[in-house]
Amino acid sequence: VQLDRRVDVSHNLQLQWKSRNVPNITGMEMALYAWQDLEMLQMRIVLTLPLPHRFNLLRKKNARAGKKNSDLMDMNEFSDGDDDLTDSQFGQVEPVMIELTYRLTSAELSIFGSAEMIEAKKITLSENLKLDAEQQHPETFIWNVFCRLKVCFKGSNIAPFEKHLNANDQENWEIQYNRKLVRDVKTVSKGVMVLTVSAIGTELLFEAEPLDNSVYSKVGSKIMSEEEISDTVHTEGWHLKLLDYHERKNLALKMLDKMKVVDDATAPRLEIYTFPETCMLRVMLQIGPRDRDFELGNVEINYHSTLSDVRVLIKHELDYEDVPKQFRFLYKGASCSVKQEPFRRAWECLPFVQIIAKAIETHENGTETEEMTRRREKIAKKVVVELPKLPKGQRRVLGKFAAVPVPTLVYVTEGRGEVHCLHECAGLFEAGDIIRIGHTAGRDYIVLPTPQEEASLYPKTMQISPVYDLVSETDFSTPIQNNFAYPKKGVGKYYDPVLDFSYEIIASPAAQGFDFTIPLSGLDLVEVNEINPADGPGGGLVAGLGQGSVTSELDGHSSIASVNTADLASIQGRVMYPTGSLLNNKSGKRRMANASHPHSWIWKCIPLKEDHRPKWRVQYDNGAVPYIYEFRGSPESHTHFRVPAMLGYLEVLCTDSRVPQFTLHPQRVDDMAEIPLERYT
Prior knowledge:
Elements lengths: L10 H11 L7 E9 L2 E9 L3 H16 L8 H4 L7 H4 L6 E9 H8 L24 H9 L2 E5 L19 E5 L2 E9 L2 E10 L2 E8 L11 E3 L1 H11 L11 H9 L2 E5 L4 E5 L5 E8 L8 E9 L4 H11 L9 E5 L2 E3 L15 E6 L12 H12 L1 E2 L16 E5 L4 E4 L4 E4 L12 E4 L7 E4 L3 H6 L3 E5 L27 E4 L4 E4 L21 E5 L10 E5 L4 E2 L6 E2 L11 E2 L2 E2 L5 E3 L5 E3 L3 E5 L1 E6 L7 H7 L15 E4 L2 E4 H7 L28
Parallel strand pairs: 12-16
Antiparallel strand pairs: 1-2, 2-3, 4-5, 6-7, 7-8, 8-9, 10-11, 12-13, 14-15, 14-16, 17-27, 18-35, 19-20, 19-34, 20-23, 21-22, 21-35, 22-23, 24-25, 26-27, 28-29, 30-31, 32-33, 36-37
């Protein structure tokens, strides 16, 4: 059995390759052969050189033909000694054949076959095949391999048979293969240089050539083995598809952004880093065209920092009395709008960035008279609250709303109108807000105004209308509870397969010092009376301070104005135990009438047109995308700096936290959303 291992190369490609990569010697013939040898591709080039006398005759013939079209052709350079040159003087009877061979491994074939050569001229392949727009021509792969192969002759193409550089000598011929994948001009460690990436087997060679105006005169190269390449891809969290050989060019482009210059004792050289390179950026305040800029301070940035990030750093790290309240960045000499800041990299502004104060229009106000003061103080005693209307028996406020999560957890009791939060209500809720407790499918509740005295005594408690009613809910039976709501079993616990033992490794909100401050007596409600709009200016819902039980006309039944200590559920170790009788709801399920539900999730409703979240984020905020422990009991681990970390341990540390304040480790949504997109793509 004979196996044909030859690789077919079309005649059209051979002609295209010969015209670009083979010396043009008159009368020379070329033949290209390629075949498979185990896991290698062998390429053999056979050059048949003409006899010296035949070469000179062909030159004269071509010269005479060219003279017909050009009267400026000088024939003297072809006549001196050419007639006396014969084959016998060279001792040559038959043409000389030069054989050149080159080999490529299977990995190199995949690398070079899928990457076009830099500055390669486009050629027209055969159009006999009908291909779609996204399909690649079958001959593109073999052309990408062969177009990098170049035959070089050390002598002159015009006079190839000189004594010192004779074309008949095998040593004067060689094959060069272009292994360059990427070439780009970049600023690396404040130096402008031309970076080139070449493929040497399965390794990558990074070379730098500083430009004339660069701070470096010479920079050493960096070669990365296949093991180093794999470690970099896993450390950076890039797609594992980049480890394939046919993705070497795309991988090289991403690694160029990870290069820095290390200036050690010997000479500057290239190195790759797996952490963001940082640098101090000076912040300068431009006062005027003739005045000198005022230095506000320095902030630390990395290669991925944007001007939007610098604005946050200025707000938190520099002296607020020196920084203008409103300012704009100068980016490349022009004012940069706030909407453009997330797309402008601060690294390009080094060594300093300029800001200019934004002019604010002010209007002079008249002096306040005593009459105006008394009127203002009189109006201040009355708090006008615009509350949404929720008629009796209606579960939803009229209008289109979207439920967005509030970063806190609440404690509610069946049949009561008090909501106790883990955080202070000021800043999270205000009177008139529409909220949903326990589930987005639940009914709407309206936040009632709380007297200032009660709000100062119990800042974590607010009043709602109507009272909390879980028994009448038909779409869900229990609210979503706990900061770490998923998975339902074993949340926050790591199972050690060696010890066969589970233990908690993430702290609860109570362990971090957060708890509900539940008053032992009821809060005084703000009296809310509905006033006829026909009463003129000031009509609407006016809230005044009241004592005792108050009837709210928003829902048509009385809300709780005072709560006795005896009615509260027993408190033991800051944990509420539900007490009360069992009731049946519309679905027929039995529930506790006065049950308490601590650590429940809460949402606030906003107009639907103001909700710009994608659909996946809405489902995540609604609790419809549970977190799953996939590596519980798994022996798999990830080694970094020779320290193994169990995947089962890491996934517990990264458990979804309802309140971002309570998490100590990066989460899959909240913290990861702040990392720039280019870190993943």
